[in-house]
Amino acid sequence: MPVAVIPRSANSRAAAARMRSRGPALEAAHAAGRTSADFPYRDDMYAPMQQERRTAFGAELYGALGTDRDDVAARAAYDAESLRFYGAPHVAFLFVSSGRADARTAVDVGAYMQTLLLAMAAYGVDSCPQGLLSFYADTVRGELGAAEGKLLVGVSFGYADGTAPVNRGRAGRAALATTTTFHG
Question: Total structural domains in the chain?
Answer without folding.
Answer: 1
